[in-house]
Amino acid sequence: MAVQEARQGPEPGAHDGGCTCGDCPHGAREGHRRAVAAFLVKRDEFAAGQGLPAAVAHSASASRQWVSEELTQSAERVAERGRAEGESWLSRVWQRTACTVGAAVVALLLVQSLTAIGAGWTAARTAGLLAALLVGGALTAASWLHRARGGALAPVIGEDNRLSTSRVVAAAWVLFVAYAVLVLVGRLAAASGPAERDALISGLDLARGAGAVTVLAVVCAIAVLVRRVVGLRVLGQRLQKVRAHRPRAADLLTDDAGRGTFADIQYVVISAVALAFAAVRLARRPDQLPDLPWGLAVVVLVSAATYLAGKYAEGGRPVILSVVRSREAGDLDGPIRTGDDIEIRGAGFVPPGAQSADRLSRMVVRIGAVHVHVPLVPVAGGFSNPTDAVLTVPVPAEVEPGRAEVQVITAAGVETNRYAIDVTD
């Protein structure tokens, strides 16, 4: 349907965002959708050999260069629309946070009301509801104050504009422990006798909440350490990172390319299970910190260690393994000359999350002192060049005959090793 709308063009009276009611968030989202649809139409037409001007149709190299430039310009418009849509989405997060918090408080009230049937309403239920209102109010206020940067999500969004799994897990434990302490504060404020107050204060003893406190300390340390590890690996060119248009919930379970990763999935799942257990323990014993069993706490610690090890193991520097002269059917074998296409074989040329055309068009090959932009070669459903393992670029006439070094610069700005080739006249 989006492709059909792109062929038909925008509706009469609609601005560039595709909306007729002014510059609104829906216009940014619609504008991005239309830009993507128009790009897909153009790419598929070029892949089918359509739309080429007569001035370049006679030359394979000229037509390839013209198609690449046209797709690059169209991809830049898509990226611009994507950034606008991402900023619009972030500005609306605080409203969704307020709605989510309100729904959670109402759900808690309903659960407490249902469970109070027969047992009666207790001071612990009142303390739990007031603690939820305080935590929810703090989240809503923080979301409004940081509404331009993602609201409540601002602390858990990484430098690459994706949700950080380690920060989300740590934030969940911090909020839960804060809620548990507020419940005890409410119980303590409503306590009538010194014996009850002493029992509530003893509920904060480390002997009772050692498991939960240990897990909290470890997940917070993991969040800080992972940020440091990723930053150092990026600066050391051992990890490639590209910025996303906006954070998504799937970032918690996937890598930058959108593929599910075992380390992230197991960390989120085990942490969620442990949090659910701790929440049930708090509901059953609201007079003390949740006494997380050491067996479950150790499971969470093992999961955190696995996640950290996965962060150390992921990524890697791109590498050139070989460079050969590109040969089509019927061509004669020979050395590399200026004007020939060379095929660069290796690994890691396309960083995770850089599969979009605007990212691919930023790849550059340095041949000697000449920088050659990697041309985009469209095929049905994608691009045949560049790929993660093979790049094909022409050797420009500006390259001097003799020994020249080839080096690939990826969309993340990471440089590969240098590979020497011989260029003849």
From TrEMBL:
Membrane-spanning parts: 98-121, 127-147, 168-190, 210-230, 262-280, 292-310
Domain of life: Bacteria
Keywords: Membrane, Transmembrane, Transmembrane helix
Hydrolase as UniProt keyword: no
Identification of the protein by name: Integral membrane protein
Organism name: Streptomyces phaeoluteigriseus
